[in-house]
Amino acid sequence: MILPCKCNNKGIIATDLLDTKTKKLVVEVFEMRNRVALANMTPSPDAAQNYILAVEQVVKLIEKQREKLEAKHDKNTQ
């Protein structure tokens, strides 16, 4: 997994492309994944489901913000 703050020397976390809430969720999801990976354990079904729900929430937030950026870009290029 790529560190959200290390990708391309800046990372998505270091930019202003995401709002604070989304950045926090990206970091939390990354940390959840690392806790399981470092412990070298299999998560319970409930924990796995919670992780998947958190990832889905982050993806939806990022998609919404991307749509806003694209709309803003389209408006500025017209």
Structure characteristics:
78 residues, mainly alpha
Mean pLDDT level:
80
Structural class: mainly alpha
In N-to-C order, the SSE pattern is HH
Multimerization state: single chain
**Low-confidence spans: pLDDT under 50, at least 5 residues?**
none
Q: Total helix count?
A: 2
**Strand count, sense and closure of the main sheet?**
none
Helix content: 55-70%
Strand content: under 5%
Q: Total domains, how many?
A: 1
The rounded Rg comes to: 15 Å
Number of E-state strands: 0
Shape: elongated
Q: State the end-to-end CA separation.
A: 38 Å
Task: Describe this structure as you would to a colleague.
The protein is mostly helical and 78 residues long. Helix content is 68%, strand content 0%. The protein has one domain. It contains 2 helices and no strands. α1 runs antiparallel to α2. 5% of the residues are buried.
In short:
The protein has 78 residues and is mostly helical. It is built from 2 helices and no strands.
Topology overview:
Blueprint: H1 20-39, H2 45-77
Helix pairs in contact: 1-2
